[in-house]
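Project standup — Tuesday

K.O.: blocked on the structure for the chain from last sprint. Re-posting the sequence here as requested.
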Amino acid sequence: MDEFPKYITPDNKDSFNQINFERNMSYARKNITELILKGNENDYFNITNFCNTFKLSENEKSDMIKIISLELKELGWNVKTSFADTGLFIYSTEKPPPSCYDDEF
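H.V.: unblocked you, prediction finished:
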């Protein structure tokens, strides 16, 4: 970063939570794009690791997964959480990948 963003002024401090959420969404989209491009649908986006790294609250985590899932579905992907909602599988087939399992008992 060559200079500070113009939006980090005291006048904008009430917007910092939203700005930070949008920044974290960008990071999540980048990570998921890299995961998809690797081409292994048996792999998954580790929600817990991502949320811990970026210190997301439970509400932010929930909002992020809802938004990302909708965006991916609009692109034609199927999505499913697994491992007690700690992993997000993104796949092209009707049936989830073998390593994805239902958390319902």
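K.O.: great, moving the ticket to review. DSSP finds three helices and three strands in the chain. The mean pLDDT is 94.
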